[in-house]
Amino acid sequence: GAGVSQSPSNKVTEKGKDVELRCDPISGHTALYWYRQSLGQGLEFLIYFQGNSAPDKSGLPSDRFSAERTGGSVSTLTIQRTQQEDSAVYLCASSHSGSWYNEQFFGPGTRLTVL
Amino acid sequence: AQKVTQAQTEISVVEKEDVTLDCVYETRDTTYYLFWYKQPPSGELVFLIRRNSFDEQNEISGRYSWNFQKSTSSFNFTITASQVVDSAVYFCALSGEGSTGTASKLTFGTGTRLQVTL
């Protein structure tokens, strides 16, 4: 079946602009995660959605970052007033359930460049 | 707090050599899972293996094998007879019961870049 998809694959924006990154999880997966991969910080957890529960936002680096998940499926990560340090690859993953022992399946990522 | 350490930043081998990627972890959980992911040049993280903390049996899958030792908090990954297609960044990761109910997130190591040449 189809894997996790993300769009756009690349995004170049100017400092101060807002961006939206999209993730389509694997059909039937109830858990969805956002991670960020940057040279200086490695792979960092950002936010986690599980079904209709309140999301775990503990990894969001600032209040400029927000995410939502509509209808328990597609998710959008929004970065407001982008800064150069936001440049990174943003990875989305989904798993069958939110149980901590389930493997997570990752999308190809969105490479964000803030000029 | 959880922590995963991959001390080897980069390894270069010649094809057909065996190579072991090290992973050391720290956790206070008694029940946890360890994972290995592969990130080829295309960028997509590919799941390789999951191992729970109660199962210390070594696992072999083709040319891949994993050695889990709780006594040394290590979960090492060996590729036998390496091939050029094995060239990638390999990440070790950890998730555990946690204490806040939000332990589904993975804690990753910094990755080991493996370069296999002819």
Structure overview:
The complex is a heterodimer of chains A (115) and B (118). By secondary structure, chain A is an all-beta fold. Chain A is globular, with a radius of gyration of 13 Å. Helix content of chain A is 0%, strand content 48%. In chain A, the strands form 2 sheets. In chain A, strands 2, 4, 5, 8, 9 and 10 form a 6-stranded mixed sheet that branches. Chain A has a 4-stranded antiparallel sheet with strand order 1-3-7-6, with no helix packed on it. Chain A starts with a strand and ends with a strand. Chain B is mainly β and 118 residues long. Classes of the chains: A mainly beta (115), B mainly beta (118).
Count every helix of chain B, treating DSSP H or I runs of 4 or more residues as helices.
Answer: 0
Seen as an oligomer or otherwise, the chain set is heterodimer
The fraction of residues assigned to DSSP E strands of chain A is: over 45%
How is the biggest beta sheet of chain B arranged?
A: 6 strands, mixed
Rg calculated over all Cα atoms of chain A: 13 Å
How far is it from the N-terminal to the C-terminal residue of chain A, by CA? 37 Å
**Order of H and E elements of chain A:** EEEEEEEEEE
Helix fraction bin of chain A: under 10%
Instruction: Supply the number of helical segments of chain A.
Output: 0
Protein chain pair with the most extensive contact, residues per chain: A-B, 27 and 26 residues
Q: What's the Cα radius of gyration of chain B? A: 14 Å
| Average pLDDT, all residues of chain B | 90
Please estimate the helix content of chain B. Answer: under 10%
Shape of chain A, please?
globular
